[in-house]
Amino acid sequence: MYKHEPNGEVEKWAKVALMKVLFLCSGNAFRSPVAEALLKMHNPEIEVDSAGTNPIVPDGIAGSAVRFLAKVGAEQYLKRFPEGMDGKQLEKYDLIVAMKARHRDAVLDKCPECADKIVVWDVEDPYFLPRGRAEDIFNQIREKVVRLADQL
């Protein structure tokens, strides 16, 4: 990137490396894509991604995730389809947020050197909870993302 000075000289700006954050859950259909969308909304300066350890959800991103994100104006940041972690270069991320300890363990199986970059949030999967709990999970993720955005 270059900056043009009024006197015609060109000053080269140093490129600042963006922080890279990965959110990880099981299916990449609700928890991690919601966190990804919310962090993108709160801090567009950060490179944010999400993935699942086993993204086999045939219906794509959960409809409830789309609805909850629309309520807070973040639906445009939501990915269209779940992705797996196998295609991710885990070592390239500065921070990996695992929704449960088993997701952390899946990362460590593939990238033992990532141990110091992983944080576990302990967020339940709404697919295995009673129907009305998805909004509670969304609000829990939103609170955690806001705190994270303030820290980064």
Can you walk through the features of this model?
The protein has helices at 31-42, 63-71, 101-110, 134-151; strands at 2-4, 10-12, 20-25, 47-52, 95-98, 118-120. It has one domain (17-151): 3-Layer(aba) Sandwich (Rossmann fold), CATH 3.40.50.2300. Residues 1-16 have low confidence and may be disordered. It has a four-stranded parallel beta sheet with strand order 4-3-5-6. The protein is globular. Helix content is 32%, strand content 16%. It is built from four helices and six strands; from the N terminus they run βββαβαβαβα. It has 152 residues and is α/β, with parallel strands linked by helices.
If helices are DSSP runs of H or I spanning 4 or more residues, what is the number of helices? 4
Give the helix proportion (percent range).
25-40%
Secondary structure tally: strands: 6
Strand fraction equals 15-25%
Residue-averaged pLDDT = 86
Total domain units: 1
Shape: globular
Unreliable stretches covering 5 or more consecutive residues: 1-16
- Can you name the CATH architecture? 3-Layer(aba) Sandwich
Q: Strand-and-helix sequence, N→C?
A: EEEHEHEHEH
Short summary of the structure?
The protein has helices at 31-42, 63-71, 101-110, 134-151, and strands spanning 2-4, 10-12, 20-25, 47-52, 95-98, 118-120.
List keywords for this structure.
152 residues; alpha/beta; Rossmann fold; 4-stranded parallel β-sheet; two-stranded antiparallel sheet; 16% strand; disordered N terminus
